[in-house]
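Q: Structure tokens for this one, please.
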Amino acid sequence: MIGTALDIMSQVAPPRGAFVDHPVGRTFGPPHDRPCNADVLRKTLAEFPLFTHCGEIRALACEWPADGGREWEEDLRAELLHER
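A: Here is the predicted structure, written as tokens:
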């Protein structure tokens, strides 16, 4: 499981969990940021051999921009509503 809500992941106790410190709903990063999206997936897959027990959650070294930038939200909204 790849998730962004560590408190919920801890309660659910997935067999193997990768925690990404991104906003809920943006697990793989901002939309259309393919390098970031691929980086999250690559790091997750690299963790598989490192799990030692069931229920373990490993934090990935993926950080959201420090400024909390959400400029992508308007673009995504427009795309979803076909306003482009």
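A few notes: The chain has one domain: 2-80. The longest strand covers residues 56-63.
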